[in-house]
Design brief:
The chain is of the alpha/beta class. Helix content is about 45%, strand content about 15%. Helix 4 (about 95-100) packs across helix 5. Bound molecules: pyridoxal-5'-phosphate.
């Protein structure tokens, strides 16, 4: 990409990618072990296109409806983009979600796992899935209770045959994120799951130190949301 096409967001994106590479090296890992998901919720195509032009291909959205309004066209223009659903998924949106997204980070209940499984079969699109774990056991937050996780993983594998990739969490805002990252890593290890979706703008380097394979970064790239 030439200098004249850089924007504040593409410069921030490069900076975040460098910081991830440094954090990975310090942890004895390779930069390519970590996927940077640029979270584009609330931002329109005009803000997203420079990042795509800069060669970035992993993007995250937290709402199916909003994603449907921008990503079909962007994906048609640029083959190879990978769009991650990182927000709650209602069962009546599963059909649209399976058609549009490439990775689901928020499998958080049996009924959703069952619906996703049936819809992936119907569309013949098997998307890698992360199980969201409510590591802080916050009543207002989505996610499987850690105490129920092992049984849920088994059901996802045996009953619904979901293509499980790993675990995802959003630590409580007022707690030490490191404790939650370490906890999620342990839950993944004992369930033989290789991937960890954890870390946001404020703590993605820390998450990489704890083994994150996917970090979800929005405001550090695109600025504060409205
Ligand atoms: C919005 C969002 C992010 C990105 O948050 P920032 O703090 O802007 O980096 C990450 N994960 C989820 C689930 C989100 O909804």
């Amino acid at each position: 990409m030439n200098e004249s096409s850089t924007t504040p967001a593409t410069r921030a994106l490069a900076d975040v990618a460098n910081r991830i590479a440094d954090a990975a090296r310090k942890a004895g890992r390779g930069a390519s072990d970590v996927t940077l998901i640029a979270v584009t919720k609330t931002h329109g195509a005009a803000r997203i296109l420079p990042a795509i032009a800069a060669g970035h291909c992993h993007f995250g959205e937290n709402r199916v409806q909003e994603a449907l309004e921008k990503w079909p066209e962007l994906k048609a223009q640029t083959p190879g983009l990978c769009v991650h659903l990182i927000g709650p998924l209602q069962t009546n949106k599963v059909r649209d979600a399976v058609a549009l997204f490439d990775v689901i980070h928020t499998v958080d209940r049996a009924r959703l796992a069952e619906k996703l499984s049936a819809e992936m079969e119907r569309q013949d699109r098997r998307l890698p899935c992360f199980i969201q774990v409510n590591t802080g056991r916050e009543p207002q937050k989505a996610g499987i209770d850690p105490a129920d996780l092992d049984a849920f993983v088994t059901a996802c594998r045996r009953t619904w045959r979901l293509p499980l990739a790993g675990l995802m969490c959003i630590p409580p805002v007022d707690e030490e994120a490191a404790l939650h990252f370490a906890f999620l890593r342990e839950l993944a290890r004992r369930n033989d799951l290789a991937q960890l979706s954890m870390g946001m703008s404020g703590d993605y380097e820390l998450a990489v130190a704890f083994g994150a394979t996917h970090v979800r970064v929005g405001s550090a790239i695109f600025g504060a949301r409205e």
